[in-house]
Amino acid sequence: MIHFTPLIAGLTLVTSLVGQVEVTGRWTPQTRQNLLDQIAGNELATGIYSRVFDQLENEGVPPDFLERSFDHPDIVIDDEIIRRFERPAEKMPYKHYRKIFVKNRRITGGVTFYRENKALLDSVSSQFGVDPFLLVSLAGVESQYGLRAKTHPVFVALHTQIHKLPRREQWVEKEMAEFLSYCYENNVPPLSLGGSYAGAFGYGQFIPSSFRGYAVDFDGDGVRHPFEWPDVLASMANYLVMNGYAKGSVDFSEGSRNWKSVLRYNHALNYVKVVLELREAIISEEG
Predict the structure, then answer these.
(1) Of 83, 178, 232, 268, which is the most exposed, with the fewest CB atoms less than 10 Å away?
(2) Are 38 and 71 in contact (CB under 8 A)?
(3) 77-136: per-residue pLDDT in tens?
(4) Domain that residue 242 falls in
(5) Is 47 buried (19+), middle (13-18) or exposed (0-12) by CB count in 10 A?
(6) What is the pTM of this model?
């Protein structure tokens, strides 16, 4: 049974005094300025964080939680993240891009993942009407079946963009607010959660707003886990269906509803092509 719980639950593997202590406090002009002085390193960041604080105040996140979270030695501006944005893999010629993903390790890894999780994949597919091999391929491209899901701290990824990438200003303002709300709601210390250089996290590599909007508690334990496969696979399937996937269809021709739903997962044509090519390779290898 699928549970769409209103609680976006935290990560059971994380423990911290930040998550154990009840934080209190109220927003005042002085607390807001103190937080800006603590976290914002330039004018761009001051403007973005100020608007982030507006959203957090509206959602009931107290400033004490932020003050404690921001007092962390690992908060840095990571120039490697900027370099990754300047050279996104999706901009490569496809013949080079596909070599990252459509290779023997990911194909055989996909077959192994499919066989080891067949009952779960069949259950998710039955509930959502999404092709199980598409879910396997997405898991392979997004996190190499869970092996490469944590390359950068999510907070640092977003914090770096806030300071260095004005072209992403609106996007990162929303995602930082969503991320800090998620952390507060679920007692997750913000610097404890690893993800991608862009700020996505979990085996399905959802950005914070997508996780809060589409994640599913598939196993019914009251927790929407970003790093447990029952919830991850169901959340991926739910995202695809909510973005137009035609239930029960395996039509992935360009421009089809299913093709467009994969494009919604990552707005790059190379990404759609490689997901679908890896899917076909896994099916062929599985026999």
Answers:
(1) 83
(2) yes
(3) 999 999 999 998 888 999 999 999 999 999 999 999 999 999 999 999 999 999 999 999
(4) 102-149+205-286
(5) middle
(6) 0.88
